[in-house]
Design a protein that fits this description.
By secondary structure, the chain is mainly alpha-helical. The chain is built from ten helices and two strands; from the N terminus they run H-H-H-E-E-H-H-H-H-H-H-H. Helix content is about 70%, strand content about 5%.
């Protein structure tokens, strides 16, 4: 009987640190507001260089899992994004069922256009203000760092604006699955910084178009803009996966 050997994938040490800290957040062992140990202590615990540790912390900050404050009282602080106990059980269940990338793409394409549509139907002046504030933070963050945690906050806000608690739970679950998927595929697998910036810039533009349709109270346009955005996202994530497989096989 031929054994099904799987290719060995090279993983950066910093990615392993990111995964370790992310799992502590998911399990609730690191809670919102908790401060990570000082860098020198983490360097010793992980037995890595300062450069490797800082690369991992930069990744966690870019995804919005932590924020880093400067000064004597500074440090790396966990942000309020850990899922509830109920969602954690669902996440664990889905991992056991070995959900795939195509499952996530399909689910986002099914639910998120409906969420955008319903948000546009019931948008209030306060909701519009919140939406604009998130996008302003997103753009400012993007100009400074080229990426932003406001990306996932945008989706969660849209779900809240529907006023439907079921949509809110579904969206939070999709965001957790997205974060896990992006960690496993790594947006950093894009071939160049320019390509990564292009991806982030396109996402920001898409969100601005979706928000404009929602604020204009145009449900049909909001739905269509979200559909186009999800299709673009799906194509890029598939491309990243393909690149990763090529590299695992020893390709360029």
């Amino acid at each position: 009987m031929a054994l099904d050997y799987k290719p060995i994938r090279k993983t950066r040490t910093s990615d392993l640190i990111v995964e370790e800290i992310w799992q502590l957040i998911l399990k609730g062992e690191l809670k919102p507001g908790d401060k990570l140990p000082p860098e020198r202590e983490l360097v010793s615990k992980f037995e890595v260089s300062k450069v490797t540790l800082r690369e991992a912390l930069q990744t966690l900050e870019a995804y919005g899992h932590i924020t880093r404050k400067r000064g004597a009282r500074g440090g790396s602080i966990v942000l309020d994004i850990a899922p509830t106990n109920g969602l954690r059980l669902i996440l664990d269940y889905l991992k056991l069922k070995e959900y795939r990338l195509e499952h996530l793409i399909c689910a986002r394409l099914a639910f998120e256009p409906a969420i955008a549509e319903q948000a546009a139907q019931g948008i209030t002046r306060e909701g519009a203000r919140q939406l604009r504030a998130v996008l302003e933070g997103y753009e400012s963050d993007f100009q400074t760092r080229g990426t932003s945690r406001y990306g996932w906050e945008f989706y969660l806000l849209l779900a809240r604006l529907t006023g439907n608690p079921i949509y809110m739970v579904i969206e939070e679950l999709l965001i957790r699955l997205l974060m896990d998927m992006e960690f496993s595929l790594s947006i950093g697998d894009l071939r160049s910084k320019d390509e990564q910036l292009s991806y982030d810039k396109q996402t920001l533009r898409d969100h601005q178009r979706i928000a404009a349709a929602v604020i204009a109270k145009n449900p049909a346009a909001a739905r269509q803009e979200m559909i186009e955005h999800k299709k673009r996202w799906g194509r890029l994530i598939r491309k990243i996966r393909s690149q990763r497989r090529e590299r695992a096989k020893g390709g360029p």
